[in-house]
Amino acid sequence: MLKLMSDKTSNILGDNPKVSFLLGLFIGVAAFSTISALIFMVAFFTGKNTKFTAGEEAADVVAAEVDLGTAEPAPEVAEVPAVSADDHIKGPENAKITLIEYSDFECPYCSKHNDTLNQIMEDYGDDVRLVFRHFPLSFHPNAQSAAIASECAAEQGKFWQMHDKIFEANESGTMGIDAWKQAAQDMALDMIKFNDCLDTEKYADQITAQMQDALEAGVGGTPATFINGYMVSGALPYESFAQMIEAELE
């Protein structure tokens, strides 16, 4: 094709060597640009659908990149199970904003995100309610037992207290079964009931079910937060969440 174009232009413009050189250069550049553009489009459209599943270490890296500002994915509409009486909830039922958080107690970015959510709850008061759900990643050795410990504490009406104790252990690097039992004792829980619940992993199936729901809703790493049904991946700064909340309140 390029040879045909060259022959035609040669017939039209004659055999002037300067003209032939410039035309050849122009045609070569145009062809190279077209090929480069095609390669870019193929790479872009084949790469943009890459997803991580629970248990892959890459999922936590995604959260890290978002937290550091190297990526800010636009919120995505996703189907997430409706809030029910089985959920752990802070804030009024009629709040204008519902934040559903899928979290891993051992994820360092979830710990940072917890601080952000606490600030949101303080600043927006009754306009916001927070729902906590589990998404313990398999490469965090203490995440599953921490999730179970929080559910065992919930049996005795102390979910949020245990939630806070676990994140304190995350920050201090003291996570483990002994830490959960000590926390339960400090909260004056029925230790026979709590220990039996924890040791038998009573809530393992419930936690797995929450993870499956999250995966079907598009969650691929932690933390993941749904703002009135719009999913935001990663521990974005407080200001980013505030902008989204303000937009929902308008």
Widest beta sheet: strand line-up: 1-6-5-3-4-2
Q: Overall mean pLDDT score?
A: 79
Please state roughly what percent of the residues sit in beta strands, choosing from under 5%, 5-15%, 15-25%, 25-35%, 35-45% or over 45%: 5-15%
> How would a crystallographer describe the biggest sheet?
6 strands, mixed
In CATH, the architecture of the largest domain is 3-Layer(aba) Sandwich
Annotated CATH homologous superfamily of the largest domain: Glutaredoxin
Helix and strand pattern: HHHEEEHEHHHHHEEH
CATH topology of the largest domain: Glutaredoxin
Question: Which spans of ≥5 residues are poorly predicted at pLDDT below 50?
Answer: 1-77
CATH hierarchy, class of the largest domain: Alpha Beta
Shape: globular
Give the number of domains: 2
Radius of gyration: 27 Å
**Could you give the count of β-strands?**
6
Structural class computed from helices and strand pairing:
alpha+beta
Number of helices: 10
